[in-house]
Amino acid sequence: MATQQDAWRPVTPWTVIAAILLPPLGIFLSRGLTPAFWLTVVLTVIGWVPGMIFALALLFVPDQIPIR
Q: CB-based burial of residue 49 (10 Å sphere; 0-12 exposed, 13-18 middle, 19+ buried)?
């Protein structure tokens, strides 16, 4: 099981751009195929804005959102 430091990666500009244009891609690039990715897919299917907000929140404040 990955620890907090193993899962942490710096946020790159490409990841932020991907999270804005296609939110699941941004989460995939930063975390891989995790439950957070699938939740982002569902939110993006519901609407692009909820998916984008959730993806950016996961990128910039990952400690506040317990989904790994």
A: exposed
